[in-house]
Amino acid sequence: MVGASSGAGLGGLLENANPLIYQRSGERPITAGEEDDQVPDSIDDREIFDLIRSINDPEHPLTLEELNVVEQVRVKVNDKESTVAVEFTPTIPHCSMATLIGLSIKVKLIRSLPERFKMDVHITPGTHASEHAVNKQLADKERVAAALENSHLLEVVNQCLSARS
Amino acid sequence: MLALLCTVVHLTLFYENQLKDHHLVIPSVLQGLRALSMSDVLPPGLAVSVLKAIFQEVHVQSLTQMDRHTVYSIITNFMRTREEELKSLGADFTFGFIQVMDGEKDPRNLLVAFRIVYDLISKDYSLGPFVEELFEVTSCYFPVDFTPPPNDPHGIQREDLILSLRAVLASTPRFAEFLLPLLLEKVDSEMLSAKLDSLQTLNACCAVYGQKELKDYLPSLWTSIRREVFQTSSERVEAEGLAALHSLSACLSRSVLEADAEDLLDSFLSSILEDCRHHLCEPDMKLVWPSAKLLQAAAGASARACDRVTSTVIPLLLEQFNRHSQSSQRRTILEMLLGFLKLQQKWGNEDKDEIPLSSFKTPLCSLVSLALADPSTQLQLVGIRALTVLGAQPGLLSTQDLELAIDHLYRLSFLEEESQSCLAAMEASGTLATLYPTVFISHLVPRLAEELHTGDTELASGEGPSYQARRLRCLQALSAVSTHASIVRETLPMLLQYLRHVHRGKNANSNEVIAVCRSLHLVAGQCQQEPESCWYFHQTAVPCLLALAVQASMPDKDLPNPGKLLLEEEVLAAMVSVISTASTHLSPELAAQSVALVVPLFLDGDVSFLSENSFPSKFLPFQNSSSEQKRLVALLMAFVCSLPKNVEIPQLDRLMQELLTLSCHHDRLFSCTAAAKCFAGLLNKHPAGQQLDEFLQKAMEKVETGLSPGPYRSQAFTLLLWVTKALVLRYHPLSSCLTERLMGLLSDAELGPAAADGFSLLMADCPDVLHRAGHAEIRIMFRQRFFTDSVPALVQGFHAAPQNVKPNYLKGLSHVLNSLPKPVLLPELPTLLSLLLEALSCTDSVVQLSTLSCLQPLLLDAPQVMSLHIDTLVTKFLNLSCSPSMAVRIAALQCIHALTRLPTPVLLPYKMQVIRALAKPLDDKKRLVRREAVTARGAWFLLGSPGS
């Protein structure tokens, strides 16, 4: 599904060599309630944001948070109804990495959230040239599954999800 | 002698002739020549002729590795002993050697050959027209690409070859014209290792090169380094690039200028500034930091480079700061500026008349003021650091500047909600106060005093939490600023006065008293380095604290309840740390002076030296006094157990006897424990000998009588524990006997659990007694020794023990294992592992937790051993990840994460099982558990998957 973009950017010239950098939000402070064995903590926006903010950008040695591709205000979760919606914003409107970034976010959520959740990952409206096509690809479960069968693509996604050394 | 000489000559000539013979004899001939090359009696001239013969007759590279090595040895031997003769050969020797080593492939031989080339160059042999050939014959190995075969008996590492080749290549400026293009080519390649090696070699070259060698290559070198720093994804490449730039700049700064020559440093720095300065104006963009780092690396090389760069960059950054108004942008700019200020500080002081930075002082000060006044914490923090750097520049800031700075720091210490800036402001006050004590005394201390004082009037009108917080901050600020002897003389009386005032107040609460004590403790710590203020503190604070405590312990019915505050355990603990810190650094004479007053106070009730000493009744804590008085033994402990070892304690026999008696014959556990600790502390420091043995014997009698069924069992146990600790720390021979006694108690129905926990006390560092700061006798390896001595017995005891007390043994063992450095543990692992695995099934969550925390580092450090038990580990960890205790679930998930360090083939059969099982903790009710589950599951997904 992202055959065209999967090879680019791993060598050669960067599409956007000097992007804007945003500050990382610190670790979430641990509250007394969280340390209390009895109190249940519901899954909230910040928790979902913490899952995806440290995903590496495929091009830069930077996280999606530092590039402002993901923001906490664009993460919506409803624990009771088991739904998650994440909007992400490519750094430039023609970013060829958009699908790959979306796929990484999706895979991270699939691996990290309980199965009961229904997740929706899409581009922030109006921020990408082929927004509609990318959203459609990301919403299609079979295409996502097929993409992960492609070992080259899986490699790139895994690199984005690996902890930074 | 002559005959011997003759023989040697003949032998040599014989061998030389044999070199022309059939190739089968050559190895043996070479062996013979090598033996001769080591001989002292070889007449002059023969070395040359042997070498000539070898160069002429032998095609070295068609010999075996061993024989080639022999040739190199012959050359090395001659070079060592007959340098002059060899040099007479001139460039022919060099040429001959080039032919010998041309095409060498064996790493063992290469190490020797590189060494020979290095000697050729460094010992100044004539290279003649063969410089380029010599370069070619060595540089063809660059960058070294060698992986030692597995089980290599020769132990040659890639790093060895890299370093010896680098030594050759970077040994002479004569290689420069050939080497620099090669380095440039390799830096531009795709290989990470080639980039690193080239940059490091360039770095090494700069030590011998001058302007002449570098001149033509500077633009290309700069382009390559810039590219690596701007676009790299590897931090190592970035670091090496910056280091190389630093060396280049240092090299250019070092060279002496000819009158008419162009200043290369200047033009080099200009090109760097040209390429970087516009990035500095975009504080949001990615390249801003790499640019700043490049400039700082270049500027850090010399005073001249620093001047050149900062004179452009500082005004630029000052202007940019004012142009950008967002806090985050300003923070980036100020942080860069801070880097340059630090460089200025490093180079600025070298023989100059004017104070560096003084031309920028006004704008810098106003900029720092802006930063400190900004609402953003991050900007404030950088501002505080900048202020500290400016303040550290002697003579830069005027008194007015400092007063303004103090205003800011004062405001930040109090008005800011953010505790980060508050702490940073206090720390900065402390640093600056050491440099400018008079300004702080005149400007800050009175305001803090007033702050403490205004508290009182508000106290009457009712107090809010904010008021309390403010007073706590004020106490913190007072202690933070007490970094200079003259300031301590102002602040200490204030703090003590305040303590007196607080504990008598109507609404006094223990938190406040503890806060004062904490401040006193900090001040005491800051006084330790200077003997004079140390004594001042001790002399002023200790009698005052003791007087207040004695006063509180008086059986006075009229005394209002808050007066007893000082006897609460927490408050006493806080006072203990003050007294102990105030006593550790006393000189022996002064300590003796003080101990002669304090011990009689406790033994005979001699209160004459206390600052307020009219008490309604006698103070005799060891006699039939109230339990309040007995509690103060803790303060005695704080004092006598912190004194240096060589201070003699008066009436020691009597004191020890009293302590023993108190430790076992009182029903208040606090006083007993204090007495036991005090006894143990003195015991630990007492020199070996008859007196020590007597003390020990008495203690053991006391313990044994106490442990027999009766009301004082737990007191006797506490005494045993502390005495054991005192002896274990100093390797006393009796300690093993006491440890055995302690282990025996593990199966005791009543004391078993306490004995198990006692092992953690034995291993841990104690905050108030028997610690290094208090000069206790502590051998470094005591934990390891205790482990070796006690673990076999613990394991044996575990197997022999009845089922109901087994957990005690496991717990004791867990405590010992937990405290041990992991490298010590690794060799013991095979014998202990089965026990640890058994402990995982133990139902006690404390045992589970400590076992998990013990296994987790082992999984990381010894994956091979652990992979034998993979089946058990996976099952048990997954079970524990559903434990009712949150801490156990978290630890189990961390272990499951650590499992991924095991060899992948071992794990793959379990991958799906683990991933499926971890779906459950992903929905755990606790967020902290979910977080660990996410990390662990993510790591398991990556196992055996491409790209991980």
UniProtKB/TrEMBL annotation, chain A:
Cellular component terms per the entry's GO annotation: cytosol; cytosolic [4Fe-4S] assembly targeting complex; MMXD complex; nucleoplasm
Pfam family for this entry, one: FeS_assembly_P
InterPro entries xref list: FSCA_dom_sf (IPR034904), MIP18 (IPR039796), MIP18-like (IPR002744)
Annotated keywords: Chromosome partition
SUPFAM superfamilies from the UniProt entry: Fe-S cluster assembly (FSCA) domain-like
GO biological process, one term: chromosome segregation
Coiled-coil residue spans: none
Domain MIP18 family-like span(s) in chain numbering: 46-121
Domain of life, per lineage: Eukaryota
Family membership: Belongs to the MIP18 family.
Quaternary structure and interacting proteins, as annotated: Component of the CIA complex. Component of the MMXD complex, which includes CIAO1, ERCC2, CIAO2B, MMS19 and SLC25A5. Interacts with CIAO1, ERCC2 and MMS19; the interactions are direct. Interacts with KIF4A; the interaction facilitates the transfer of Fe-S clusters to KIF4A to ensure proper localization of KIF4A to the mitotic machinery. Interacts with CCDC117; the interaction is direct.
Physiological role: Component of the cytosolic iron-sulfur protein assembly (CIA) complex, a multiprotein complex that mediates the incorporation of iron-sulfur cluster into extramitochondrial Fe/S proteins. As a CIA complex component and in collaboration with CIAO1 and MMS19, binds to and facilitates the assembly of most cytosolic-nuclear Fe/S proteins. As part of the mitotic spindle-associated MMXD complex it plays a role in chromosome segregation, probably by facilitating iron-sulfur cluster assembly into ERCC2/XPD.
Protein name: Cytosolic iron-sulfur assembly component 2B
Organism: Sarcophilus harrisii (Tasmanian devil)
Annotated gene: CIAO2B
Automatic annotation (TrEMBL), chain B:
Gene3D superfamilies registered for this protein in UniProt: Leucine-rich Repeat Variant
SUPFAM superfamilies noted in UniProt: ARM repeat
One GO BP annotation of this record: iron-sulfur cluster assembly
Residues annotated as signal peptide: none
Keywords of this entry: Cytoplasm, Cytoskeleton, DNA damage, DNA repair, Nucleus, Repeat
Domain MMS19 N-terminal: 8-231
Function field: Key component of the cytosolic iron-sulfur protein assembly (CIA) complex, a multiprotein complex that mediates the incorporation of iron-sulfur cluster into apoproteins specifically involved in DNA metabolism and genomic integrity. In the CIA complex, MMS19 acts as an adapter between early-acting CIA components and a subset of cellular target iron-sulfur proteins.
Subcellular location: Cytoplasm, Cytoskeleton, Spindle; Nucleus
Family statement: Belongs to the MET18/MMS19 family.
One GO CC term on file: cytosolic [4Fe-4S] assembly targeting complex
Pfam families for this protein: MMS19_C (PF12460), MMS19_N (PF14500)
Top-level taxon of origin: Eukaryota
InterPro entries in alphabetical order: ARM-like (IPR011989), ARM-type_fold (IPR016024), MMS19 (IPR039920), MMS19_C (IPR024687), MMS19_N (IPR029240)
Domain MMS19 C-terminal, first and last residues per copy: 474-900
Stated name of the protein: MMS19 nucleotide excision repair protein
Source organism of the structure: Sarcophilus harrisii
Quaternary structure (record): Component of the CIA complex.
